[in-house]
Amino acid sequence: MAEQFVAAPSKSNPDALLVLLKARTFIALFLVFVFFAFNAPNFMSTANMVIMSKHIAINAILAIGMTFVIVSGGIDLSVGSIVGLCGMVAGYLVLNGVDVGLGWSIQFNTLEICLLVILVGMAIGALNGFLITKLNVAPFIATLGTLYIARGAAMLSSDGRTFPNLNGNAEYGSDTFRWIGAGEVLGVPVSICLLISVGVLAAYIATRTPLGRHIYAVGGNERAAGLSGIKVNRTKYFVYIFSGFCAALVGLIISSQLVAAHPATGDTFELNAIAAAVLGGTSMSGGRGRIGGTIIGACVIGVLSDGLVMMGVSSFWQTVIKGLVIIAAVVIDQSQQKLQARVALQTQANLSK
């Protein structure tokens, strides 16, 4: 009886610790929120909550696309540059349209501008997919290359200058461009509505479609997925195109919010997206991750960033802290995997007795 009494805690303790590790993102969000609520001035004000929610939406949309890429076993370093390029494309179309020569130009309304910008983002995502699947370039190198290409193209589009005053023209129907960043739907900011739409779509794909199962299978074991009949290359194409789609949306939102487009927009955004995905439980080795967890991870990054700004912490220290957060998230994730494996072995041992 004494031996049974001593052995019981050793079995329950790993289970309790595993529950805590799985809930780490919620715990982290609660802790940072409470900390800044007491230490950052005006952190709990309505105005700050609205602003912070818009910041979170931007990072969360980008991180959702990144989650699919990481789950498939890849990485996308180009998303920040795609944000900048798509913002510049939107700014150029709003201000100038497309010059066809002989003094004529094609002008676009807001919906057409949005569709064209999204196509640009998806095209760059398709380029990433082509480099990785057809030319066998490592995802890190391929997306690093497109990072520079997209950023350079953004600079070239205006010789490094800003496209200002993106108020549009009522005559062409582009005067509603500002609504994307400043408008509301039933009192909810458009950026939050877009996050909800993208999140629901991504969660549905991940949990209710064969494509979602294929993404997880490719990330878990690409060779086994191929042997089982899964179109590995098509799956990889999809995740990079979807990531480009998310980045294009963010470019539209930011340029609309600022009513201006700058070629340096989106610099280091890829780091925040990766951090949000990893914090949300996405494994950097692929095969595991949840859209809901990624959104919570984006909330942690958003609250942390805005809270540090409100406390007057240097931007240099903010970068250091984000780096530490990413490292801590990966270490905790690895600890969770090891603990899960140990619990599984204990369960098998108990069943075999």
- The neighbouring-strand order within the major sheet is 1-2
Distance between the termini: 18 Å
Question: What shape does the CA trace take?
Answer: globular
**Rg:** 22 Å
Helix share of residues? Answer: over 70%
* Proportion in β-strands: under 5%
**What does the average pLDDT come to?**
89
Structural class: mainly alpha
Secondary-structure element pattern, one letter each: HHHHEEHHHEEHHHHHHH
Main beta sheet: 2 strands, antiparallel
What's the number of extended β-strand segments?
Answer: 4
Which stretches are poorly predicted, pLDDT < 50 over at least 5 residues? 1-12
Task: Specify the number of helices.
Answer: 14
Structural commentary:
Strand 3 and strand 4 (188-189) form a beta hairpin. The chain has a domain at 47-267. The model is unreliable at 1-12 (pLDDT under 50). It has helices at 2-22, 24-39, 46-71, 79-96, 110-133, 139-156, 179-182, 190-208, 210-220, 222-227, 232-258, 269-279, 291-310, 315-352; strands at residues 98-101, 104-106, 184-185, 188-189. The radius of gyration is 22 Å and the shape is globular. The protein starts with a helix and ends with a helix. It has 353 residues and is mostly helical.
List keywords for this structure.
disordered N terminus; two-stranded antiparallel ribbon; globular; 353 residues; mainly alpha; single chain; 14 helices; two-stranded antiparallel sheet
Question: Which helices and strands, and how do they pair?
Answer:
Elements: H1 2-22, H2 24-39, H3 46-71, H4 79-96, E1 98-101, E2 104-106, H5 110-133, H6 139-156, H7 179-182, E3 184-185, E4 188-189, H8 190-208, H9 210-220, H10 222-227, H11 232-258, H12 269-279, H13 291-310, H14 315-352
Helix pairs in contact: 1-14, 2-13, 3-8, 3-11, 3-12, 3-13, 4-5, 4-6, 4-11, 5-6, 5-11, 8-9, 9-11, 12-13, 12-14
GO molecular function, one term: transmembrane transporter activity
Pfam family, one: BPD_transp_2
Organism: Flavimaricola marinus
